[in-house]
Amino acid sequence: MDWIAEDQLGSLGLLMGEAVERLVDSHDQGFDSRAAMLTVKTPTLTQGDNGVRFDFQVVGNREKQQTVALEIVPQVDEDDPGGVGELTSECQCGCVAFLRDQSCPHTLAAAWWLQEQIARRNGNGQLIEFLGGLKADAVAAGKQFVDELLRRAKNSRPAPAEDAEPTRLQWRVRVNMASQTAPLTITPFEQKQRKGGKGWTKGREVRSFDLLDQNLLTDPLDSKIASLTSVPTHGVHDDNYAIFEALRMLAGHENVAWDDQNALPVEVFCSQLLLTLQPVEVEQSNKPKKSKSQTDGKTSEKKASTKTARKSSGKRSGKSADELLGNVTATMTMPESELDSISVSSTDDLIPDELIPDDEKVEVQFQPRLSVDGIDIDVQKCETVVGGLSPVEPAIILADADEDRIVLCTLADPAAIGIIQFLLRGDYRDTLLDHATASRLALAAGTIDSLIRVELPPQLAGPIVPAPCELVLQMRPRPGAGLKVSLRVYESRLRDSLVPGDAPELVPCLAETGPIRLQRDLKAELESSEKIVQQFGLNRLSHESTMEWVALTDHAALDLLGRLHDAGDDAPRIVWPEGETFRVRGEITPKSLRIKIDDSPDWFGMTGTVTVDGVDVPLQDLLMAVREDRQLVRVGDRRFAKISEAFRKRLTQLGDTLVSEKGQLRLAGAAVPLARDVLGDDVTLETTAAWHQAIERLDSLQDWSPDRPEGLDANLRDYQLDGYRWLARLSRWGVGGVLADDMGLGKTVQTLGILVERGPTGPALVVAPTSVGENWVREAEKFTPALTGKLYRDCDRDEVIKTAGPNDLLIVSYQLLQRDAKRFASRAWHTLVLDEAQFIKNSQTKTSQAIRTIQADWRLGLSGTPLENHLGELWSLFRTLSPGLLGSWQRFRSRFAEPIERHSDADRRESLARLVRPFVLRRTKDKVLKELPPRTEITLRAELSAPERKLYEDARLAALAELTAGGGAPSHEGRRRIQTLSWLTRLRQLSCHPSLVEPSWKGTSSKLQLFLSLVEELREGDHRALVFSQFVKHLSVVRTALDELGVSYQYLDGATPSHERQRRVDAFQNGEGDLFLISLKAGGTGLNLTAADYVLHLDPWWNPAVEDQATDRAHRIGQERAVTVYRLVAERTIEEQILQLHADKRELVAGILDGTDAAAKLQTQDLIDLIKAEMG
């Protein structure tokens, strides 16, 4: 069982049972009846480095079989790389229900089967034997793998017959605007090539679904279209999106036809619809104009070509041009340059206006037409279907059967559908716009351009006029806070401003003399804009779109306005909507704040207001303003009040103490002292009797210094007496805390002092690691004989819980409390003590959850390392010991954890330290225990031999190849992290001894030789040592070597029974054994081993606090000799990288508990980088 830590083998049944139970509980109860009808076949088991996988075959009542994979893997402790916590289980199934809900009856039936099998095994030996019997035959599995692979390859694509005729796919389109359910259909037809290669057959209809299911498509484009058309349509929008997208893909396809009996080819293309105004000449007498050239029998080339185009157009519709347009003669729309040249060259040929009779004068009018890519669209001949490519991408289909053409017109704005439908309803062949009407439309073209683009002829666009370039900043206050800022080109003759540098270069507008076209200098606009952006820091705001930014906070908005104000005339003009701007109304100070405090059993409620200009501003608005680092708080429409700088700091501290719940501000009782100090004497308070009583009680406790309790038979050192008094004050106050003294400073005796003081009023429950349970009983007997200490083991457990009363002290292990949580939660306890409280640093574990169900009048945590890796550990501790002080995890994370760990926010770090400082008492040995002998720490480095180095480097390169392949998709982050930690464990083991990874290794190791030479020196000097290793296998290798040399030792790991542990500890303390070999996790806490004066760490652990705890087994009260600590490290290996991390871990503890710096926890990529590092 290499996939689980050796220390946990003894708990394998319990851990696996819990993992599968959680999996069963995660299923919906609606699956129960269906799962009960399923048959589960005995699975095969595959074991890997990261866990085990069960492969089930689950059979339904119709003999339909589903494959279910159930994996059980160790849960990685994110803050303790390489450590193993609970086991987790995951299921996979290929059925539709699982794909939708991530659970199904098949996975539930498989989980039930495994749960029953685990329950039927008595003891871990039977369970391990049972699991071994499920292991798959590797050779048989290989045969099955090849058979399945070849079967799938054979069936993936049917082999073509030797005489098979070439085929191709044709897509046929039907547009029927009268159909409500299927206005557009796209159907595939299979065509065969005729004999001799002379064309193709008409084809037979096939189903898109069949083409996909039988894997018959070779063209990726056809595959995509088939996927989109395989879903049946029901006339709803979601169906139309797919069919419209399929039509878009057919644009340019070489084989598309109408879906009718003729199946004529049809051209599909996708473009934008344009509204164009075509100029036509109309004689005032409603007769065609007669020009001089016509009178002379000459024909203008320009008009001739125009008439030709118009005649052909009339022919298609079955009418002549005169019938279509009446007495209208259209002119060809030509480029402006060509028109100018023509008008100049033909001036002499035209009859002067004054010589032309009034009834023969010509007026230019304009005909509206719809076009796509220069093709005129006759809407009367088109079938139209409205739909879209997506909810925000509307589109319209125009199908012209006469022209064998289908146009998919995409629209930029859903609002355009209405105007497009209006345009498609009309017949504009008899519609003319006179010059005034056409000018109105021309001037509005810019307004409706987002709905439909309007193309204007030169006659309407007007002359070209250079445009001045004035850049302005348009500002609009945001609804919540801050400003929206837009940099724009301003022109007084335009209704809307323009984006600098964005087309068009010619902008139509209306001047006093009529329509004109403004000529912009886009390059100059961009250059001027860039200067403004850089000068005033617009690029430091949140970018929203082209030349638009958002000042997210009022503070950021005021900073920008201040920079613009300071620049004076060098700043661009600011334009506010309706001439409005920010107005600041006075300053908010503590004297203007009125606070009302009410009370409930567990909280104090708090409300408050300040009044500015007759407007009441709630306290919550002030707290939100300082939380978002805003100097201003809104007091009305575009009116603000400034919070004074000194008051901002006090509001921030007040916010740290308050928790918002259901819109109400609540203050935990533990936070009363800090809240009182923050509010001070200059804030008006309206309080209750409960508040005054709490304040009086705090004032009385400040000067209360109780003597050593009479029931404690121990001579306390000064710092221990101070510790007892601190505990007594917390106890009297009723608020939980953490005694965080260094290991070896006597946390147990200080705690016994407060337990004997509280003993007469009720029973105490002590939760402690298994290894120290008996030590609690002995210490209680020795120092507090008035207390009756009992181990929750080998007794009537229901009775011992039920009858616990005054002066009773019940000691239970974390594991047993988790198992029997309901028993312990069935009654109230006067005192709850958590020894080695870091056991609940992960709030999500079952252990933490179980402890939170215990009812206790007062709670105390004991831990030399309350904060090891990240701030979530501290939050988890206080969630149990002093609920409400730090609020919810979401609040704590946003208010403290993320600013401190990600951004190294010193102010937030100090605020958190100030908040928890009254409830954490931490003393270090170097500060309070001057008489303790010194401790020396030495690192000894072992150089790997050539074979060891090759083995190590091969593994390192293999790790990098596996971990860097595929780019590390976020969806695989959890599995990638487990793989990373697995490789790191291998590299650490190779650094110790190759046989830990390669069983075939027959030689020794450089580190083992270094260790044995050190042991020889220690024995010669009559020294005794504790030897720690994370790996039980490593200790096994060491034991073999020591046995060969005849060196005596004691041994302890996670499998050692608790009573045997104490016997071996006592034996070592009494002189039996030169060495004590100890598994780091099993014996790193709770043991007193002062008979040793040397400590040897065979392999460095990620967290130095764990090593320090182990070292403190020897360096503690009672030690009379100097203690030397040796760390054995393999040179140029991962172990040197781990040592480098130790300094960062120690800074985290100091940062919060002592107020210095902090470090964030390692991410997966950080761990991979450790492997990448060149070891030299």
Structure description:
It is a single chain. A hairpin with a 2-residue loop joins strand 33 (658-661) and strand 34. The strands form 10 sheets. A 7-stranded parallel β-sheet has the order 38-39-37-40-41-36-42, with helices on both faces. It is 39% helix and 24% strand. The chain is α/β, with parallel strands linked by helices and 1176 residues long. Residues 3-10, 78-84, 287-353 and 1155-1162 have low confidence and may be disordered. The protein folds into 7 domains: 6-156, no CATH class; 168-265, no CATH class; 271-290 and 302-337 and 359-381 and 414-460, no CATH class; 463-581, no CATH class; 607-700, no CATH class; 714-928, Rossmann fold (3-Layer(aba) Sandwich), CATH 3.40.50; 935-1172, P-loop containing nucleotide triphosphate hydrolases (Rossmann fold), CATH 3.40.50. This is Helicase. Residues 1006-1168 form the Helicase C-terminal domain. Residues 282-323 are annotated as: Disordered. Residues 728-884 form the Helicase ATP-binding domain. Keywords: ATP-binding, Helicase, Hydrolase, Nucleotide-binding.
Q: What is shown here, in short?
A:
The protein is an alpha/beta fold and 1176 residues long. It is 39% helix and 24% strand. The strands form 10 sheets. A 7-stranded parallel sheet has the order 38-39-37-40-41-36-42, with helices on both faces. Strands 28, 29, 30, 33, 34 and 35 form a 6-stranded mixed sheet that branches. Strands 43-48-47-44-46-45 form a 6-stranded parallel sheet, with helices on both faces.
